[in-house]
Amino acid sequence: MLFKRIPTVSTKELERRLPEKPTIIDVREPVEFRGGHIPGAKNVPLAKISTFNPKGNVYVICQSGMRSKRAAKQLMKKGHDVVNVRGGMMAWAGAKRGGKL
Q: Which residue in the list 14, 41, 62, 71 is annotated as catalytic?
């Protein structure tokens, strides 16, 4: 477990999986989330990820991929099935909700 790799997907791959309604956790701060997020994503800021207990497989995203990687590590240590989204919202080209600041 010490050196277990975190599974990752590209933003394109996550976009292809959206019809399956995957659980997506956006670990950015609320103001960033309101600035634009993936439809259906739940906002759980990185600072609060330790208290979050998702059910099933979870995709974790942030702005660039660094915070989501940290969040994924924390969730994996708790035994959750986690996939980090490479490139984060900076790489996301799909539909977004929000964006009105």
A: 62
Contact 56, 42 (CB under 8 A): no
Whether 57 is catalytic is no
Q: Could you list the pLDDT tens digit for every one of the 101 residues in the chain?
A: 455 789 999 999 999 999 999 999 999 999 999 999 999 999 999 999 999 999 889 999 999 999 999 999 999 999 999 999 999 999 999 999 986 54
Architecture (CATH level 2) of domain 8-91: 3-Layer(aba) Sandwich (3.40)
Spatial CB neighbours of 50, under 8 Å, sequence gap ≥ 6 = 74
Distance, CA of 55 to CA of 11 (rounded, Å): 21
Number of other residues whose CB lies within 10 A of the CB of residue 78: 12
